[in-house]
Amino acid sequence: MLTFVLKRLASTIPVILIAITVCFFILRLAPGGPFDQERALPPDVLANLRAYYHLNDPLIVQYLRYLLRLAQLDLGPSFVTKDFTVAQQIAIGLPYTLIVGGSAFFLAIVGGITAGIYGALYQNRSADWLIAIVAMAGLVVPNFLVAPILQLVFGVHLAWLPVGGWGDGSIRFLAMPVVVLALPHIARISRLMRGSLIETLNSNFIKTATAKGIGRRRVVLKHALRPALTPVVSYLGPAASYLLTGSIVVEQIFGIPGIGRYFVQAALNRDYGMVLGTVVFYMALIVVLNLLVDLAYAWLDPKVRQR
Amino acid sequence: MNFSFKTFTGVVVLSTLLAFGSAEARDLVVYNGGDVTSLDPQKISGDWEDRVDGDIFEGLFTEDAEAKPILGVAKSYETSKDGLTWTFKLRDDAKWSDGQPVTAEDFVFAFQRLMDPKTASEYAYIQYPIKNAEAINTGKIKDFSQLGVKALDDKTLEITLEHPIPYYRSLLCHFTAYPLPKHLIDKVGDDWVKIGNIVTDGPYKPVEWVPGSHVLTAKNPYWPGKDKLDIDGVRFLSMEDNAAGFRRYQAGEIDIMTAYPKDQYTFIQKNLPGQGHFTPFAGLYYYLFNEQKPPFDDKRVREALSKAIYREVIGPKVLTSGEPAAFGWVPPGMDNYPKEGARFKWAKEPYPQRVKEAKALLKEAGYGPDHPLDVTLSYNTSDNHKRIAIAIAAMWKPLGVNVKLVNAEVKVHYANLREGDFQVARAGWLADFNDPINFLDLLKGGNEMNYGKWNNKEYNALLKQASTESDLKKRATLLKQAEQIALDDDAAMPIYFYLSENLVSPKVKGFKDNVFDKHRTRWLSLDK
Hints:
The structure holds 2 protein chains of 2 kinds.
Chain A: H1 2-29, H2 43-52, H3 59-71, H4 86-121, H5 126-140, H6 143-157, H7 171-201, H8 204-211, H9 216-228, H10 230-244, H11 248-254, H12 260-269, H13 272-300, H14 302-306
Helix pairs in contact in A: 1-13, 4-5, 4-7, 4-10, 5-7, 6-7, 6-11, 7-9, 7-10, 10-13, 11-12, 12-13
Chain B: H1 2-18, E1 27-31, H2 47-56, E2 61-63, E3 69-71, E4 74-79, E5 85-90, H3 104-115, H4 133-137, E6 149-153, E7 156-160, H5 168-172, H6 182-188, E8 204-210, E9 214-219, E10 233-237, H7 242-250, E11 256-257, H8 265-271, E12 276-277, E13 280-289, H9 299-307, H10 311-319, H11 351-364, E14 373-380, H12 383-396, E15 401-408, H13 410-418, E16 424-430, H14 437-440, H15 457-467, H16 472-488, E17 492-499, E18 502-504, E19 508-509, E20 525-526
Parallel strand pairs in B: 1-10, 1-11, 14-15, 14-16
Antiparallel strand pairs in B: 2-3, 4-5, 5-7, 6-7, 8-9, 9-10, 11-18, 12-18, 13-16, 13-17, 19-20
Helix pairs in contact in B: 9-11, 15-16
């Protein structure tokens, strides 16, 4: 098992290296630089800044310097935020993103699976239809629309919840961003779960179990659920990496200081250090999450385990 | 399900670790726009950063409630007859927030650090009027002691200028002129600016900073006027989503918005009377021509396009937020300038007349129905810029001008401008200090901000003459002459003057509108 994990991790190193290389050079090819702005800088000041960030060195030297730093787990300086390095900014923002994203992930799993089971057991009845309609709405309506509507209803008009901000980090502040983030995933998981469970319930080993006189509840929870979860689990990897890297829309609307906004803003700011930092971080996260999904497969499906 | 459960446990643990207190009752909450990039006044550039640093630092001069310069750390000053040497006496009770006295040496240190090329300060150039400042900042002089800033004793500072400047007091309010705590920076270096280390000499001091969320300040216990401060501290929120900020404002979570969603203008005027402070503000929205290449090296073409812009409708109808039309280059209300600045000669003509003249001019220049003028109009991505570009393209259509709109994100847009890769392009400018030279410099030959490369000898000479003129009235006349030349030659197309965009809760008292849009917290108070 350990060798399997190590092998998987080692195989990702060249992938990460290629991605960094591509990202590094494409970024420099993009027009505009970190110091292009509304107020043009006098040439001397610009020269001072470029020297400060070593931008005058040949590109290949800059590239090698970056790799050397990275090997020492140093993500380097941000070109925009002067008082914090890239690693410090990610470290400060990450807990917020993990809390919001993690809670949303948890809600998506619990909500999605429950709704999916319900839908499968009460197929084509009104409850099933209702779930389907709500799920479709959650999937189709974008979060930049859902979020303001929730804010206006629960924050401004009913004044039940704070409209935004982190506050003391309590559930009152988390409720709306978590629900907005989780909604499309609840929808997708519930559809996957429903479909997969219906298929499993129609398979022979379930019929056998029912014929043996095992109770309905036990058949579903003990026998059908585990195999039916496989498609859901394969969806969880990408879902987790999406949720745990934060969402710029949700973070901006609710004023959450997570890392999601860096992915977009750093690119727009041509903050070379920050873009590369987030790319490296994102890839590392995907690698780990995919590994976890593989391990979960092994746990769910004995066939995978024996391979 | 083990994985998700572990994540959740981790989340619970983390959230407990992270919980911190919510806003205190007397804290002012300000929607501050972009993320502050530094607390170091020599490393900032934006107005959102100025709002924070202007509360926590104080220079020799500082702004009053209407942003006029008043004495700050200096208790008195003298100017030599030639206007070149300024001698300041510092307040005896001026202290850093750790109780150390603010000394003349702190100012000398700060100005030397500002001009040190290694500091790479973006805004250093604004203090170039100081003797030898430019030479030091560009590495031509290595000996920092040659900078025209000297400590005569602990509490006496002498600043020598290259040439007299009438707006120098205003320039001394700027964040590049703040003192720095030498005793601290000597000890901890660049880390001085970290929360926990940083000491400041203004009414407030920073106590918490979460990037992407907020900067929180509290009263500086050593600031001489601390007993008169009504507000205990300010929570400057890093938020750029105006609509989301406005919802929080409506729910009472934010006291002051420094920008608002423009589509809510009518709603605000109707439903929140007295809360919208949209007043003239030292900013200009303009289009510039690339005058290096045809067809815009032809003054007739420039004049025709400029005349055909129906400026009177841009603010009220296109933006729907009432910005005043710009028929001159310098926004109204600036110091050291006549109330009535220069204007286009045709500014009072009715619009149909202007269009007629514009058509005639284009015809004269060889354009018309059979030979239409093709123009590329570039702007940086933004809904408002797009709206204006579309409206103006429509205004040019009857002249037989075919407009191709090109938009690019802001970094690319300005990189293109710098490289001269445009025909007609959008730009904007906000004053750094209260003087018309801010705007007139934009058209000076050789200025890197003069993207259109309009270069008029007479104009340049007038600005040069004004720069050494110490009589304010004479100087104003010279500057106005220069402005008229720029307008007569259609150096660029001013379109509208900015309005400030503040929403102020009725709980906040003492908020005075001013052309500079600066509202230091020390002048504000908060009803419970």
